[in-house]
Design brief:
The structure holds 2 protein chains of 2 kinds. Chain A is mainly alpha-helical. Chain A has 12 helices and 2 strands. Classes of the chains: A mainly alpha, B alpha/beta. At the A-B interface, helix 11 of A face helix 3 and helix 19 of B. Chain A: This is Carbohydrate ABC transporter membrane protein 1 (CUT1 family).
């Protein structure tokens, strides 16, 4: 039975369908990225080789949006991880009201990003927003949260942290639940302090899941568009524009399909490079604690 | 005998019923289903839906309104037109897309282009926006021109009038010039009272560039030089960084200083909210502002909504002579921002007669008049009767509000120096760079001249990329100029 060729008869169609569905769009997009192909004004597809890539790589806007996206992704994920780990540890330690906290902390993650952005836009509103009202109450001036570059990037990072820290909490809490008790008991017998237990046991043992969670969040953060679109529209200028918003502008406002496809692949390459570097940096640490 | 009588009665009843049905179908489009493409509602789509239902009752035909998100509408239409498919019988679209569609559209029937209903359409639409290279190819179904809105209670308060005159040396009144508009904005900027001088859209991606164009139109649209505001209509060189445009941008940026603190994040929706919330003394924008501000259910200033034509200027920069032309009287150059939704019939439609009949019905004085005063349809006045039939507007405005609102609309559309928005292939490529540079200028990162120099360079690059000859031909056609 094991060598019966009939098995190929059943497997190949399914395999081809799966490959077709998942690979075809990528191949189509890759092919388009080598074309000069615009819907507005309509121009028939024309092979231009690597021109779209060269044009993007020499476009200062591409580098600025890559920098902005990276800044938002790395800073927000770092903050999410620190807060997420702290909250997960607190919840794992069964603080009073832990069940209520657990549900409450998860709520932001369940809200659609556009809705979160709308809520944030109201909170950051300088005239009727509660944040600036509070600041006014304490005698501070109104701050241009969404209209000056640094404040706007800070606001975007804050919203990201607010919405996605619960994801980190959830994942790390699951990881903490799997840690064996006997290791801690042995450490306690050796009079290891809580701090020593954290750095000597918890953190190293949580490293694999931490690495995975941070990696997932990094990739997801690079795709940020909803909150930027609603909160700042990418402005002022292009100072808060992210890679995905840039791709949206090129693809769905200017209908520059060839250029947008090239941008998508550069985006993919950027993510891949970050992923490879990230895993390369972590590899020795992961191997050490395996 | 009884059977015969019953049979005769039945035949008579059926005949009457059939006759009645025939009378209801006028003209009779029984069995005809029109597919109409629209952006996702409620704006425009709801007007199509309700007109479709009425049209169905009248003609026994059916209208199937297919809605697409804004970003999907253009590609759906352009691909169906260019592929020659008979996907839609009626398309509704932004005027900026006209250059890409006109080759594929059926001409408006001769019968529709005459009579009182035709003459009732404001000439700027009938003779320019609906016409492409001498052919009428679309029907305006929404009017879009920027007008001015102000608070009557503030402007007519004797104390305010006295204080204003003492400070500026002239009477507080509806501004004739943009300088007066800025004076008024400065005068009413009182954060401690929760009052600011003006509200405009300043947000990137929030219709901001149309507001800037309204300022710039006053200084760049030289009477007697049609179509020269955006580009030189002979060479297609960008005019957008000349001193007239720079002045327009400087004043647009200055106006933002007299707007509520969050105004740099204002789209048109927030402008309307600020006006209706009584936060600002005046504003500019589309006709929706007056309608929303006059609505008691959502406005704090209902009953005090004044309207007028946009401010103008006594000097306009002439790009040919490269100096400022002086005028004895203020020249108003109201800007037809966006231009208003168009409806057209693809040449591939097999239901062209019924499709044009539906468009005629949709844009008829009665149906469009009702839509214009119905909130959420997105239909603003584009017929003369829309601005003269006071009865239509009584449900929305007080008599004075209605008079001013309609006069503002009518005077704008009829202004000798009214400015058409540009309609060019690649429109959003051109306007995107304007948006980016505007938001930099508003944030103080670049000067007005630097911002517009960047825009001009990019516009010239885009024109070369898209083909200067093609762009020039489209631009001239859009501005109603003969081909070169």
């Amino acid at each position: 039975m094991r060598n019966d060729p009939i098995k190929y008869f059943f497997i190949w169609p399914a395999l081809l369908i799966v490959l077709g569905i998942s690979i075809f769009p990528l191949i189509y997009s890759l092919t388009t990225s080598f074309m000069s192909y615009r819907l507005v004004p309509p121009s028939p597809p024309r092979f231009v080789g690597l021109d779209n890539y060269a044009s993007l790589l020499t476009n200062p806007r591409f580098w600025q949006v890559t920098w902005t996206t990276s800044l938002i992704a790395f800073v927000s994920v770092a903050i999410q991880y620190v807060i997420g780990f702290a909250v997960a540890l607190a919840l794992h330690a069964k603080v009073p009201g832990e069940r209520l906290f657990r549900v409450t902390f998860l709520l932001p993650m369940l809200i659609a990003p556009v809705a979160v952005a709308l809520i944030a836009r109201q909170i950051f509103n300088p005239t009727v927003g509660p944040l600036n009202e509070l600041m006014t109450f304490f005698g501070f001036p109104n701050l241009p949260f969404l209209t000056q570059t640094y404040w706007a990037i800070g606001a975007l990072i804050t919203v990201e942290v607010w919405q996605w820290t619960p994801f980190i909490i959830l994942m790390l809490l699951a990881g903490l639940a799997t840690l064996p008790d006997d290791v801690y008991e042995a450490a306690a017998l050796e009079n290891a302090s809580k701090w020593q237990q954290f750095w000597g046991i918890t953190f190293p043992m949580m490293l694999p899941i931490s690495a995975a969670v941070v990696f997932i969040r990094l990739i997801e953060s690079y795709k940020i568009i909803d909150t930027v679109f609603v909160l700042t529209g990418g402005g002022p200028g292009i100072s808060t524009e992210t890679l995905t918003l840039f791709a949206y502008q090129e693809g769905f406002k200017k209908f520059n399909l060839g250029y947008t496809s090239a941008l998508s692949f550069l985006f993919l390459i950027t993510i891949t490079v970050i992923g490879v570097v990230y895993l390369a940096i972590l590899k020795p640490h992961l191997a050490k604690h395996r | 005998m009884r059977k015969m009588l019953l049979g005769a009665s039945a035949v008579a009843a059926l005949t009457l019923a059939a006759g009645g049905a025939q009378a209801a179908c006028e003209p009779d489009y029984s069995g005809v289903t029109l597919t109409a493409a629209s952006q996702t509602g409620p704006y425009i789509a709801s007007a199509l839906q309700s007109a479709g239902e009425e049209w169905a009752k009248k003609t026994c035909g059916k209208v199937n309104v297919v809605e697409f998100p804004w970003s999907e509408l253009y590609p759906k239409i352009v691909t169906s037109l260019s592929s020659g498919e008979e996907t839609f019988d009626v398309i509704t679209f932004a005027p900026a897309w006209s250059p890409d569609f006109t080759d594929f559209l059926a001409e408006t029937p001769e019968a529709m282009r005459q009579g009182a209903a035709w003459e009732d359409i404001a000439p700027i639409y009938r003779e320019q926006l609906m016409v492409w290279n001498g052919k009428t190819l679309s029907q305006t179904i929404d009017g879009d021109v920027h007008t001015y809105t102000y608070r009557i209670d503030l402007f007519e308060d004797p104390k305010e009038q006295e204080a204003f005159k003492a400070k500026y040396g002239y009477d507080l009144a509806v501004p004739k010039t943009w300088q007066q508009y800025l004076d008024i904005a400065e005068f009413f900027t009182r954060p401690d009272q929760g009052l600011w001088g003006t509200a405009e859209a300043y947000r990137r991606g929030g219709q901001q560039f149309w507001f800037f164009f309204s300022h710039a139109a006053a200084y760049t649209n030289v009477p007697g030089q049609p179509g020269a505001m955006f580009f030189d209509p002979d060479t297609m060189d960008a005019n957008i960084n000349n001193p007239g445009w720079v002045r327009g941008l400087e004043e647009y940026v200055k106006s933002s200083k007299f707007a509520p603190p969050n105004a740099l994040n204002f789209s048109f929706g927030e402008v309307n909210a600020a006006v209706a919330g009584g936060q600002v003394a005046q504003s500019i924008g589309w006709g929706d502002t007056g309608v929303i501000a006059a609505d008691k259910a959502q406005s704090k200033i209902a009953g005090n909504v004044g309207s007028d034509i946009l401010p103008g200027s006594t000097e306009i920069y002439d790009y040919k002579t490269k100096d400022w032309k002086k005028f004895d009287e203020v020249v108003h150059s109201p800007f037809m921002a966006f231009g208003g939704w168009q409806a057209a019939v693809p040449a591939t439609s097999q239901q062209q007669e019924a499709a044009w009949n539906f468009i005629e019905f949709l844009s008829s004085p009665e149906v469009s008049g009702k839509a214009a005063v119905t909130g959420g349809t997105g239909v603003n006045p584009y017929r003369i009767s829309h601005t003269t039939n006071m009865d239509l507007w009584k449900s929305l405005f007080t008599e004075r509000e209605a008079k001013e609102y309609l006069a503002g609309q009518a005077n704008s559309l009829a202004a000798p120096n009214v400015v058409l928005d540009m309609r060019l292939p690649g429109y959003f490529s051109y306007t995107e760079v304007v948006e980016i540079e505007l938001s930099k200028a508003l944030a103080g990162e670049v000067t007005a001249q630097q911002a517009l120099d960047t825009v001009a360079a990019e516009w010239n690059r885009l024109t070369d990329e898209f083909g200067r000859e093609n762009q020039l031909a489209a631009y001239r056609a859009a501005m109603g100029l003969p081909p070169k």
